Amino acid sequence: MGYRKILIVGENNLCRSFMAEVILRGLLKKKNVSETELLSRGLVVLFSEPVSPMAVAVLRHHGYEISEFRSSQLTEEDLESADLALTMTKTQAEQVRTNYEAQIACMSVGTFIDMEEEVPEVTEDTPEAFEKCFRSIESLMEAAADRIIGELLL
């Protein structure tokens, strides 16, 4: 199965989902997968705003390319045009399935890669907390990229 478009969904699209999008895009690019579009969205975005500067800083520190990015609300149209929606937590996946009508494969990143792990929240506004979150997301996105590539080869 190929994925033309993957949505990565978080709470407010200011940190974790944005970081996961950037990391997964970079990992797929390194593995020459260019036909998959990646977008991140939030479940609760009252107005579009710039993402966390510390998230941007840690991504740049690790060599990930970042274009100008602002948070975006998840819409029914986003889901209808996508092949897969990956959420940061199982609770968020359930919220998408409950609150949206689109028929799409929607699951947490952990479920997608057959792990119980969820993407941890950044609980402190410190460089160390963002680095810890980055390491966790990068590990999860590496496993997600492997599954995506594996399914492209089927």
Automatic annotation (TrEMBL):
Instruction: List the Pfam families hit by this protein, alphabetically.
Output: LMWPc
Domain of life, source organism: Bacteria
Phosphotyrosine protein phosphatase I domain boundaries: 4-147
Q: Which GO terms describe its molecular function?
A: protein tyrosine phosphatase activity
InterPro entries from the entry?
Answer: LMW_PTPase, Ptyr_pPase, Ptyr_pPase_sf
Name of the protein in question: Phosphotyrosine protein phosphatase I domain-containing protein
